[in-house]
Design a protein that fits this description.
The chain contains five helices and two strands. The chain is mainly alpha-helical and 193 residues long. Helix 3 packs across helix 4.
Length: 193
């Protein structure tokens, strides 16, 4: 059996630097510490951006527009980097990154479906005799709340499954996604003559 020497956990700055360096790398593996420090970094950054956004003057369209553009581009970049570390984290426990891709596919289909439903409900109610705008908007809201709740339950279950995967320990040794980032083989003892 091959012996492994465990590398110490990543620290916050090391994990964030690693995730930035591997922003577009969807191959390989990511340790729990790398993943969870990245999650904390994104949460703190989101808090800072929200606080700063509260001080942006809304009467100056140039400043608000530039700030919004910076936030949009930064969010897009962080979303890609986060997807990469999510996939690498799943790889670390021996699970396909498509489990994370399933989340993105589900959200995309859900948005398209809800948009179509809004139009369908509005069209049906607008064709109804004596329908007032308030009746139309209330009916749309009530029907959508029911549909959103029904479709959101499987997503929540799926999210809990992913959370369990993210919390699992690394698979020991190499797997089909690469070497274990948690440890490297210990040097073999010199042969004694």
């Amino acid at each position: 059996m091959e012996e492994f020497m465990e590398i110490p956990r990543m620290r916050f700055t090391e994990a964030v630097k690693t995730c930035f360096k591997k922003s577009f790398v969807f191959k390989g593996r990511a340790r729990r510490s790398e993943y969870w420090w990245w999650v904390l970094f994104n949460s703190l950054l989101g808090l800072v951006v929200s606080l700063v956004g509260g001080f942006i003057p809304t009467d100056n369209l140039w400043v608000a527009g530039i700030y919004s553009l910076i936030v949009l581009l930064g969010s897009l970049y962080l979303a890609i980097a986060s997807a990469a570390v999510n996939v690498r984290r799943l790889h670390d426990v021996g699970i396909s990154g498509w489990w994370y891709g399933g989340t993105l596919i589900y959200i995309l289909i859900w948005i398209i479906w809800i948009t179509i439903e809004c139009f369908r409900i509005a069209l049906n109610l607008n064709l109804a005799p004596n329908a007032t705008p308030d009746m139309v908007s209330n009916a749309i809201l009530m029907q959508l709340i029911g549909k959103i709740l029904i479709t959101y339950i499987p997503y929540m279950i799926y999210s809990v499954v992913l959370l369990v995967f993210y919390c699992l320990d690394s698979k020991p040794g190499a797997n089909k996604y690469g070497e274990n980032p948690k440890g490297v083989p210990a040097e073999e003892p010199a042969l004694q003559e």
